[in-house]
Amino acid sequence: MGEGKTEAALHAAKLMGQAVGMPGFFFGLPTMATTDQMFARADDFRQRRTEGADSLTLLHGMAWLNAAYSPGGEQLDILTADPTATEWLRGSKRGLLANLAVGTIDQALLAVLRGRHNVLRMLGLTGKVVIIDEVHAYDSYMQGVLKMLLEWLGALRVPVILMSATLPVMVGRRLAAAYLTGAGCPEPAVPDAVYPGWVYASPQRSLPMSVESRQRTLMVETRAVPLGTDRRPERGDVLREILSPLLEGRGCAAVICNTVAEAQLTYLQLRRWAREAGGNAPVISLLHSRFPAHAREEITREAIARYGKAAHGGRRAAILVATQVIEQSLDLDFDIVISDLAPIALLLQRAGRCQRHLGNDGRRPAWASTMRLVVLSPGDRPSELVIPPGWPYVYPKALLRRTHRVLGELRDGRIAIPGDVQRLVDEVYDESFGEEGNPLTDDDLDRLADEQTKDLYAQMAAIPSPDRVRDLGELSKGEIVDEHATRLGADGGKIVCCQVTPEGHLLLDGEPLPRPVGKNVRFTKEQVKHILRNTIPVPASWLRGVARGDTPPEWADNPHLKDLLLLRMAGEELSGFLGDRRLWLSPELGLSEHPPN
C-alpha cells in the first residue's frame, strides 16, 4: 500500500505495449471518484512518457459533469491536440477507442456482457494494454465477469496488468489462469505471487518475481465498542480517548465507518466534542457517497488538499470521518487510522492511508511515532464480537469473524509490512475447510453460497468464451445489459432533492428547477448537467414501492433523467419523505435519516 503500484503499472504498460506494438492503455478503476483522480495522473504520464499515443479519454457515466476537468465550462474529458479527434471520440460509445483511456472497470466489463455494442468495446480494448486496479475490491459477480474478459483478452493477445496490495493467492491464480486459458493453455500452471512482488504469466512461461520494499511495523489495537439501543456501535467515548492528542493542535486522523448512517452519527459526536473543547480543537469533516454529486466532488478535492502528498506539516489538527470511499486509490496520508472492523484485505487497505508518505515522517507530531491502526470491534470486550444488524449487508459475517479472530492472534498487536500481509489475507479468505484450525461454520456456508450464486449470475450474463463462439449472434443473444449489469447489489437508484418554497415553487441548489424550453420542449445540455450534479445515490430498499408522483413527467423523455426521482423537501432543515422514510439534506451531513443537529 502506497509503494508506487500505479507508477509501476504505467511504466510496465509502456514497456509491454512497445514490445507487442500496442502503445496505448486502458486504466480501469472501481469507482468514479478514483477514476477522476487517476485521470489527472494519467495525463501527467501522457505528457511525460508517451509517444505516438496522444488522445486520452475519461470514461464513466458522469465524466462530462466533472468540474475538475472543465475550467471555464470547457469540456475536457478528452485530452488531445487534435480537435477532429476530440469531436469524433465524443460520439456515442467511442471513447474507449482513444489511444489512452481511464475509466471505471465497468467500461471494460461491458465488452463481455450480452448486448449491443459489446464488440465495439472489445475493439477499443485491443491495440492497448489493459490495466485493472484494486482487483481485490470486486465481488464474486464482478470477478466472474472479469474472468471472462481475461479469457477474451488472452485470446486476442492483449497484455493485461492486474493490481492489488491485498489479493488472496487463490483469486490471483484464478484470474491468471483465465487469461492463459484464453491464450490457448488448456491446463495453465500459475505460480503463486510472492508478496511484495508480482507474477509474470504468458503462454510460454510464468515466473514469480519479488521486489524490495520498505519494511514497516503496523501496530494494531482492537478496542471494544458497545452497541446502543439502536444496535449501532457507540464509538463516542473510545474515539474521544484515542483522538485526545489532537486537542494539542497538531496531527490528523481518519475515522472509517462501515455504513453511511454510522459515519454521519460519528461525525456529529466528534463535532460536538470539538466544539466543547474549543481552542486548538481539530477540524472535523465528513465524506461518503450520499452527498449531491457536486458536493461530494468538492469534499473529495478538499480532502486531497488537506491530507494529500503535498499537504502535510504546519497545518491545524484535522479529522476526516468517512466510509469505504477513501480506502481505494485516493492518495491520502493520516497520522493514525481508526476503522470499524472489516475484512482483513480492506483493513490493510485502510491502514495503507496511515503514515503513507515518507516525506512527512519528520513532521509528524510526537504522539504519532508509530504506524497505528485502531480497529473498533462491536461488543463489550475485545475478545467478543457482536455484529450489528446493518453490517452483513456490507460484508459477509464469515469474513468479519475470521478477521476478528486473526487480529486477536497477532503477536504483540504487530503486523510486519509487507512480510505478514499475504499470510493474513490468505488465512482469512482460506477455502480449505475441514482442515485443522479451519472449521466450516454456518457463516462460511452462507458466504460460499453467496459467492457461487454471484459467479453463476456472471456466467449467465457474460458472452460465451472465445473457443465456444460458433455464431456472432451469440454475443448479443438474450440481451440483458443495462446500466447496472456490471454490478450486483449496487445503489439502487438516484434521487434529486428540491426545496419547496412557501409559494410552492421548486428550487434546485438555490435556483429554479430547470424546465424544458424551445418548440421541441427539450432540456438544454446545461440544464441536464445542473440536475445531474445534484443527484444522490440511495439504496434499492429506499425505493421499493415509492411512486414517481412528484417527479416531472418530462424527465421520462430524457435519457439522462428518466430514472431519477425527485424528492420535495421543505422547512428550515430541508426534510421530506421518500415513501414512508423521512430524510434530511444538509451541507454537512448530506442526505441522512436523522436531523443535522
Descriptive tags:
16 helices, Rossmann fold, 7-stranded mixed sheet, alpha/beta, 597 residues, 31% helix
What does this structure look like?
This protein is of the alpha/beta class and 597 residues long. It folds into three domains: 5-210, 3-Layer(aba) Sandwich (Rossmann fold); 220-417, 3-Layer(aba) Sandwich (Rossmann fold), CATH 3.40.50.300; 493-592, no CATH class. The chain is built from 16 helices and 23 strands. The chain has helices at 5-20, 32-49, 83-89, 106-109, 118-125, 140-155, 169-182, 236-243, 260-277, 293-307, 344-351, 397-408, 421-428, 442-461, 525-532, 540-543; strands spanning 24-29, 56-59, 78-79, 100-104, 128-132, 160-162, 197-201, 206-210, 216-225, 252-256, 283-287, 318-322, 336-340, 371-378, 414-417, 493-500, 506-508, 511-512, 535-538, 564-569, 575-578, 581-586, 590-592. The strands form five sheets. The protein has a seven-stranded mixed sheet, with helices on both faces. A six-stranded mixed sheet has the order 3-2-4-1-5-6, with helices on both faces. A hairpin with a 2-residue loop joins strand 21 (575-578) and strand 22. The longest helix has 20 residues, at 442-461. It is globular, with a radius of gyration of 24 Å. The chain starts with a helix and ends in a 5-residue tail after the last strand.
